Each structure stands twice: as C-alpha cells, then as structure tokens.
Amino acid sequence: MFWKFDLHNSSQIEKLLEKEDVTLQELLDEEDVLQECKAQNQRLLLFLSRDSSMLDLLNLITHEPPADREERLRYKFANVACELLTCDVSLINDKVGGDESLLNTLYSFLEQTPPLNPLLASFFSKTFGNLITRKTEQVIGFLKKKEDFIGQVLKHLDTSAMMDLVLRLISSVEPVCLRQEVLTWLNDERLIQRLIELIHPHSDSERQSNASQALCDIIRLSRDQASVLQETSETDPLLTTHELQQSIDVLLKNMFEGEKSEVCIVNGTQVLLTLLETRRPCVEQVIDPCSQGLEKPYTVNNSILMAIQTHLKHFHHLLLNPPKKCVMLTTMGILEEPFGNARLHGSRLMAALLYTRAPRIHHELCQLNMINLLLDLFFKFSWNNFLHIQVEHCVSAILNQPTTNGKTHDSPDQIQLETKDTQNSDKSDMFTHCDLIKHRILDAWEENDKTQEAGGMRKGYMGHITRIANTVVQNAEREQEQTQISQLIKDLPEDYKARWEQFVNETNKKNTADLNDTPQIIFFISIFLLTQVFSDYQIQEMSANFVDQFGLNDDEFGEHDSTTFLTLLVSLLSQVSSAIFETRTKERIRPFDDAEEEEDIWEDKEINYATQVKARSRFMKHTHTHARIHTLISHSSDCCLSSVGLDW
C-alpha cells in the first residue's frame, strides 16, 4: 500500500502546527484532523493533550455554541471535538480519564437545568460511554463519589442519550467481577424502582417511553449475560429486583390506578411483554449458526405471573372500556371507535400469557371470559389485522397445548405446566362457550360468501379464520392418545357437524382447483415462493457476527453458497417454464380459416361489435387470470384445511 512508503504529501495540519500561535479552532476546521489523529500524528496529539486544549474540547461538547453562528456550521466544532475525544487514541483516553478536573468539566453537563440540548446530550453520552469502556475503573470510581449520579441521569431521561448512558454502564463494563460490582451499585441506587416510577400517567410521554425502553433493554442484556456466563453462580441483582412481585405490582398500579393514560398502559405493557419473553425476538425461522448452543429459552418466574394475575381484571376492563380516542378517517371509511394501541398491547399480553401455559393464568382468563371477548373484538374490528394475528395466537396457544398426563413442576422459580384438567377445560371452553366452530368460523365464512356474492368486499379477517380452522383440523388429526378436539367436533349438533365437514371439503377443493386450474398461476406462484426463499436465505447469511467476520481479503470472500443457490433457483424456474411450454404446445390451436375471404381494411362498412366483444372477452380472460394470481398471492394465508401439503 502507498502509505507504507510514506509517499503522500504532507497535510495542512503539519503546516498549521508549525505556527507558534496556532489555535484549536484552526485545527478543528481542517477536514483531515480526525484522520491525522487516528494515524497517531505525534505533533497533533501533543497539542490536543494539553490541558487547555482538552478543556476547550470538553467545553465544546457541553456548552451551547454561539447563537450568531451560521446554523449549518453552528455545531461543526462540537461534532469534530466529540469525534476526537472518542476516536480511541490511548493518549486522549488516558488524559481525560485520569484527570479528575477534566471529568468534572464533562460531568457538569448533567448538572444543567433540563431540558438538555439533544445533540449536545448525544456528544456527552458518546464521550462518557467511551471512557466507561476504556477507563472503566477510574470512571466508575469517579461516578460512585458523585452524589446521586443516577438521579442526575434520570432527571434528563426525556433525552434518549441518557438512556444510552445507563445501558453502557450495564453492558460495557469488564471484567465480570467489576461488572457485578457495578450492577450491585446500580441496584443499591434503586435504578429499577426509579425507572418504574417514571412510567406514570403524570410523566411526559418521552420520559415514559425512554424509561420503558431502558427497562426492556436491561432485562434482555441481563438474560443474555446470564446465558453466556453460565459458569458464574452470581445472579444479576437488577434482573432479580425487576422480577420481584412487588416491582411488577408497582408498575401495574401505575398503569391502572387513577386516570387512564394510553401512553402509560402501552409503555408498561411493553415491559411486561419483555419479562414474559422466553427467547430473544428474532426473524422467524432464521437461526444464527454461531449462536447455537448459547441461546437457551428463559424461564418465567412465578412472581411475574402472580403479580400479573391479580391485575388481569384491569386488562379485561381495558378491552371493554379503552381510553377515549377521536374518530378516525381510514381508507375503509370513518371509524367511530378506533381499536387503539392500548387494547392492541393488552391483546398481545393475553397471547404471551397463554403461551406460558401456567394453570393459574389459564384458569383466571377462563373466569374472566377473556377469549370470548377477544373473539368478539376480532369480528367487530374486521380490518385490524394487528388484532387478528394476536387473537389467532391466543387460539393457537390453547389448541396446541401438549399432553402432560397431569405432571407439574413444583419449583417456585419456574412456571408450572398445565395439568390435564386445565387442558380439557381450556379446549372445551373454546368449543362450547366460545362457539369457535358454530358461531365463529362457520357463520363468519357463510356471511362472507353472501357479502361477496352481493358484490361486497372480502372481510379482512378471512385469512386468519382459515388459519384458525387449519389449527383445529391439524390438532384433531395429530392427536393420538388424547382425542379431545376430535370428540368435541363429533359432539357438535348434526347440522353444524355436516356444515363443518362440507366447509373443510369445499375449501380444500377450492384451493386445490385454484392452484391447478391455470399453468400461469403455478409459474407466478413459483417465482413468488422462490423469491421468498431466497430472501430468507439472504437474511440467514447475515448472521450476528457478520460485521466481525467481514473483510476485504479477496481470497477469503467466497461466493460459492450464493452461486449454488442462484443456480438452483434458475434451474427450478427453467423446469417450471418447460412444463408450462409443453402444456401449451399440447393444447389445440385454432387454425386459420383459409376459406374466409380476405378483409379489405379500406372498405366502408357497418361496424360490427360482435368481433370487438369477442376480442375483449379474450383480453378479459387473460386479465382475470392475472387477477386470480394476484389474489392467490395476496391471500397466501388461506391455505388448505387438511394435510394436502399446500401450506404456502
């Protein structure tokens, strides 16, 4: 490379440093000052490491720039100063981290009266976060000596940069023993309790949102660290405090006592959903091969479920009487009663609770008639697919319960699996009290058919209705020892049982016919599916350690896997095209009628619309085919209702 032989011309920085009266602003105004600093330009580093220069750099990122400066240049020097302070040069890190007076200058930014300048707050957070990573012991010791450091940070939590600073303290401290010491200190400062207190109807929305996000990130970071450092026996004090029944009870009281606030309910529910996560959220069906063996499912503590159970009645009331919302204009018309984000998060929580398979939770939900209420909302808000998918999850969680033969786990730190009686009660209630088949699936399907026959639009929930029906049929087919679902279907009244069988058979027949009727449909669906597969393949290749492994070495940058997949893709499409071509060549082509007299295009004659209608009908036939292709692809969730092998 050229720079190995020092063939580049001397920069303007060198010329400036030769001046005796050079100023810091002159250097910051140069475009290559950051590159020269990273390249360890010794003369530049000696200038920047002076006490006066360091003080000026810190003042630039903690004080408002002059108001009379041009707007686009107003924060230029502050931005460059932040980049220099965080460019990971040991001389600069040692200078700032080892000088308490400089640390006090930086810390003084927190002592300002809120609100903070968001841009300066990001510069401050980035600089302090870098020092926490590079000069951990010195900076942690400095912060511990400050009076109520956590209080100063939380005072400015309406700025997201302060949340990032708190998370840096939790995630960037090494070694493990020092990290445990920091976590204990943060727990002694009541970090979790103080964040929960901020999720309150009287707090502003930004502060609540940042507090909620901080709590969610703390939960995930703590669980990730616990799964990686499995050899350590020490528990995370922040996570332990967060999972206490008392902590969750305070959060739920803030959400529901007093005036209802949608912002408070949504942010609080997000924390509860994170506590109920058994795995980190990721792209569906995509597994990072480098993380296998490290990521294990988390267990949900009983304390979490016990705290939520006592407040389920409030969520039931929320679904019935949500916070007032204004009339909303949508593409489908005026919505007098919008469903709202609060009720959506409530339905998400119900699905998450059902997937824990805790007997006490299932029993309480049955007592509250929660599933029936969710099904009512499912059909009432016929165009809200966000709600539909959550209700579908709730139904699937009940129908997919595994057989346990009455066995339970007695450990107080783990959720209990449902007993056989709980399973029977849940499924029986779904079919009898909720009328899943009689007055839900069958009536909705028939009503939709009548609407479409009258020229109306297809209901927005029909795809989810089909998926729910699929779940019923699949569970009935794969039940071996326990035949409860099959028995519940057999116990239906004769007219409904006949309607159900007819519904399953006709839907299978219709879907199979739609797939096999026209070769073009197969071709376009093949392209669609293969494109989806290749998209998933690309996502899977982008693993979590991609950035660390990525390099510019041509010898190591292989393309074998991508080439192989593309070859397979082209081969499959070629086979489909060949099959369609052979099908078309076997079809009878109408020959030209030689006896038909040649038509004089210049001859004046009476216009005959029959020919035009005929041509138009041929055009409409092709248009109809493409419309059906579009319909099939857009409603790909409407798959067959038995093991026909058409789960697309």
From TrEMBL:
It holds the Pfam family SAPS. GO terms for molecular function: protein phosphatase binding; protein phosphatase regulator activity. One of its GO terms (cellular component) is cytosol. InterPro entries: SAPS. Belongs to the SAPS family. This is Protein phosphatase 6, regulatory subunit 2b. It comes from Cyprinus carpio.
